[in-house]
Design brief:
mainly alpha, 60% helix
């Protein structure tokens, strides 16, 4: 009787679904886009992803389509929302908002790095604002989920708040976005921002004269 080998045969890894492959390529491309802007080569991206260059063009129509996908991924707030939703609500409001401000800062830094790298090379298309408060519909959609998560952080203290959690979340989000703009001189720290938002500009209660 012939002996059979006890060594298991190697199986090839199952091929990725198209969406998974595109996501993997974008994940590899994002840090390179931040570093090199639109001048990054598809060959360099392919090496970072561990694939052949031709695989990129089977996943994306061209390099511009890949760059657009990188911008869309940078804008996507899913991870940011998950982090905001994981903030413990049994902390004091100041601690909740300080943690939330750090999370939002990371999101805006990532978005600004990708957008700035592409805008510097003239490869970032900007749509004209046409939505509420002059915001584009795409931008408004990207802000809505984080804003809802921020509102939930105010909810435990709603009985002591001067405005509804939703309105405060909108104001807090706008304040963070304004304070985080590139090139701001002597930017406020996270703690300073939260203190200013919750307690105002006056050192003592009362109206300014």
């Amino acid at each position: 009787m012939a002996e059979t080998s006890s060594t298991p045969s190697r199986r090839r890894a199952a091929p990725m679904e198209p969406d998974q492959r595109r996501a993997m390529i974008v994940a590899a491309a994002l840090p390179l886009v931040v570093e090199y802007g639109s001048s990054v080569s598809t060959a360099k991206i392919a090496r970072a992803a561990g694939i052949g260059e031709g695989t990129i063009f089977r996943a994306f129509a061209d390099k511009d389509a890949l760059l657009a996908a990188c911008v869309a991924e940078a804008v996507r707030p899913d991870d940011t929302v998950s982090h905001l939703e994981s903030i413990a609500l049994d902390q004091p409001l100041t601690a909740r908002l300080t943690e939330a401000a750090e999370v939002m800062h990371g999101y805006m830094t990532r978005l600004g790095a990708v957008a700035g790298a592409l805008a510097a090379a003239g490869r970032l298309e900007r749509s004209a604002p046409s939505g509420k408060n002059g915001r584009s519909p795409d931008r408004e959609a990207g802000l809505a989920a984080p804003r809802a998560a921020l509102a939930a952080l105010f909810e435990p203290d709603k009985d002591t708040l001067r405005l509804a959690p939703e309105r405060l979340a909108d104001a807090f989000q706008l304040m963070l976005m304004s304070a985080g703009r590139p090139g701001a001189p002597d930017p406020l720290t996270t703690e300073e921002l939260v203190d200013l938002f919750l307690n105002g500009a006056l050192t003592t209660p009362g109206e300014a004269r």
